[in-house]
Design goal:
TIM Barrel; TIM_sf; 272 residues; 40% helix; 10 strands; EC 5.3.1.1; gluconeogenesis; alpha/beta
């Protein structure tokens, strides 16, 4: 799919300290990075404007959440898309498994947030994925279909949407889903988009993989036909991030992958 670019989203989660952030921004700014990879830095609210001032324009800035309204009841303590745009944010990350599982954000709420952010001019990165119980019961596709149907109920135009597959059953294990597991689910999402949104959106909506992405496993994961990039969590504040951004796939890389050079820990349902 030549229409789709490659993306790396760095999820800085709860990074703290301006000095740490300065070091991260300096590392990104002075490093030689693949021009064909779009880099999106996801940053906690208090540091968004600070990071925007430090990073060159080639780096996009993402907030790690936003609310579904800009005023009225329930908005105290929330952040609206308009606020984010004011400080130079162009993307927002929604539906991360941390928020779904710990804060009990429903599929409906995630979809409402995404639709409102889009209507306010932000691009959205929406995470979807299944739990261990869902996967072991054979409900992977139905779980993802429910999440995607909620999105489709509220989102009218998908041009500025990016989807991330997070295998919740593998998160926290320090191991990535096996490449064929990642591809199987992303292939399902691609087909779902074709069937229920449009062939055009199926061809162009970026699909990312998120879950223990490292400099060791990124190449073999990127070789999967429906992997358009990565959401990077724990390694997003390490030098590994640079190698992940520079995941250039060429014939030499392909041979190295085939020979087993890029071996790393993987996990799938048969490992439990």
């Amino acid at each position: 799919m030549d229409e789709r670019k490659f993306y790396v989203v760095a999820n800085w989660k709860a990074i703290t300290g301006k000095e740490n952030i300065k070091e991260m921004c300096k590392m990104l700014s002075i490093s030689v990075l693949d021009d064909n990879t779009d880099v999106i830095v996801g940053c906690p609210f208090p540091y968004l404007q600070f990071v925007r001032q430090l990073l060159p324009e080639r780096f996009y800035l993402a907030a790690l959440n936003c609310y579904k309204e800009c005023k009225g009841a329930y908005t105290t303590g929330e952040v609206s898309p308009a606020m984010l745009k004011d400080v130079g944010v162009s993307w927002v990350l929604l539906g991360h498994s941390d928020r779904r599982s710990v804060l009990n954000e429903s599929d409906e709420l995630v979809a409402e947030k995404a639709a409102y952010a889009l209507s306010e001019g932000l691009s959205v990165i929406v995470c979807v994925g299944e739990s261990y119980d869902d996967r072991s019961a054979g409900n992977t596709e139905s779980t993802l279909a429910n999440q995607l149907c909620s999105l489709n109920k509220h989102i009218k135009h998908w041009q500025n949407v990016m989807l991330v597959y997070e295998p919740v059953w593998a998160l926290g294990s320090g191991k990535s889903a096996r490449p064929h597991n990642a591809q199987s689910v992303l292939g399902f999402i691609r087909k779902w988009l074709e069937n229920y949104v449009s062939k055009e959106m199926s061809d162009t909506v970026p699909l990312l993989y998120g879950g223990a992405v490292t400099s060791t496993n990124c190449k073999i994961l990127a070789l999967q036909p429906d992997v358009d990039g990565f959401l990077v969590g724990n390694n997003s504040t390490k030098h590994d991030l640079l190698q992940i951004i520079n995941t250039n796939i060429n014939d030499e890389d392909k041979q190295s992958v085939d020979s087993g050079e890029y071996l790393s820990p993987y996990i799938d349902i048969t490992d439990f």
